[in-house]
Amino acid sequence: MTRxxxxxxxxxxxxxxxGLPARADTIEEKAAVCAACHGExxxxxxxxxxxxxxxxxxxxxxxLRDYKLGNRKNVSMSAIAEGLExxxxxxxxxxxxxxxxxxxxxxxxxxxxxHHAETIDNSAGCKGCHMADWQGDSTTPRLAGQGxxxxxxxxxxxxxxxxxxxxxxxxxxxxYTDSDIEALAKYLAGR
Length: 191
Ligand code: HEC
Ligand code: HEC
What we know:
Layout: H1 3-17, H2 20-23, H3 27-38, H4 57-69, H5 75-82, H6 86-97, H7 111-124, H8 126-130, H9 148-160, H10 167-173, H11 178-189
This protein binds heme C (2 copies).
One heme C (HEC) binds at residues 8, 12, 33-34, 36-38, 48-50, 52, 60, 63-64, 72, 74, 76-77, 80, 92, 141, 154.
């Protein structure tokens, strides 16, 4: 755990003890809880936390639903989703999807790494679902410019059984080596 993750976990504990998710009324109050980790202006406070500002609405909603149902598991997010009802999740998804995507300023992948990632994309057809420019659509997530460390970790989780909420992604990632995942993560982070 990094220092930020620990600070973040304390912030979460304090918020949960205060009962904020349950009592918050306005969307701004509900979203304030999220800012403790996902950032005040779209830049997450820790590199293992994904950007959600500007992410696609249907995708955001499905992830919150999956955390609540236990189909996707994470210590922080499972606790957060526990306190949310369907209308809250819909409202939060619409709220964050309408925010601008914030560039993290990650470097473009070097040519050999980009070539490796593009070769994988050509055979797997990632962009058939994640769309040209990796912007995603509706329930398919945007990948362009997502945090490097998060991309690396979530792809490894699909592959190794830590994230099972999408059978297609699990089956696909199973065929990849660490070096494939590293190339894809660097390539996507730098888009
Ligand atoms: C204590 C820190 C913390 C708080 C507070 C928090 N999150 Fe998260 N969130 C995370 C982490 C860490 C992940 C990545 C978890 C994983 O790998 O499954 C995440 C993942 C997500 C995802 C999945 C994104 C993706 O690209 O798959 C969504 C959606 C999300 N959070 C929404 C929210 C919303 C909405 C709130 C407020 C109601 C919130 N989060 C509050 C830490 C937090
Ligand atoms: C058949 C359509 C399809 C194809 C092909 C596909 N994906 Fe996905 N991908 C999805 C969907 C849908 C999700 C959201 C899964 C969920 O709801 O958890 C996803 C999720 C992801 C995520 C997680 C994003 C996040 O914010 O957590 C990554 C990373 C990803 N895909 C990378 C890839 C890569 C790299 C390829 C090609 C090697 C690829 N995908 C091919 C449909 C696809």
